[in-house]
Write a structure and sequence with these properties.
single chain, 288 residues, mainly alpha, Growth Hormone, Chain: A, 11 helices, elongated, transmembrane helix, Inorganic phosphate transporter 1-11, MFS_trans_sf, MFS_dom
Amino acid sequence: MASNNLTVLNALDTARTQWYHVTAVIIAGMGFFTDAYDLFCITTVSKLLGRLYYYDPATHAPGKLPHPVNNWVVGVALVGTLTGQLVFGWLGDKLGQKKVYGLTLILMVICALCSGLSFGYSKKIVMGTLCFFRFWLGFGIGGDYPLSATIMSEYANKRTRGAFIAAVFAMQGVGIVFAGLVSMTVSKIFLMNYAGKAFNVDEVFSTEPEADYVWRIVLMLGALPALLTYYWRMKMPETGRYTAIIEGNAKQAALDMGKVLDIEIQAEGEKLAKFKAANEYPLLSNEF
């Protein structure tokens, strides 16, 4: 082991792969799963929104979201995601990744539920409320992206770090698939119980009023994996690298990582100060 490195960091880099690492992969992966589900489930119900709220009897055609409305409904979460990455990425370094990660998940739970509770006396208010909560949902997702990847990279050892991070990112594809599966399942259940008539038979009731629950349920189900991820993440300690290097608490880092890795790690307070001084550099510097 390198003599100029901290014992706790060397322990993390050289630790054998164990259940603790698998748990970290699952938790961080569930974050990416939730992100993908919340971002892509809206595209599976956007056509239904048009049928429900934008049917015009004069056209004798199924309702369809106007292009500007569709772009806002589908894309506003991506705007929030970009903003959230910048804000929560910075906050994660300042306040701690565990604390900020929990905050992003709480925000995602609240906004996923509120997205499905978007009500109003006109279609403009419903769409406006939906866009409002979708933006803040994306804001939370934007924070989850960098923090999930960072948490996994800091928990992993050198040998398996690449594979673990790839596994975490692969959960995004699983989330996209589940967005479609959940939408089809909920739609099928409602179709079996509230079968509408063909559009050429009855234009008004070809889409049953109960279909308004379908898109709401699909959006609100995105809160469930976020809530589970929050519970399990709060049971894990802050990463040893953050506790030692950023907070400057080598003793706590050694204690936390010693428990999860089931080894005894020596705390090195004096060595920590030298290590921090040698590894501090400003944004956009040559080292950065």
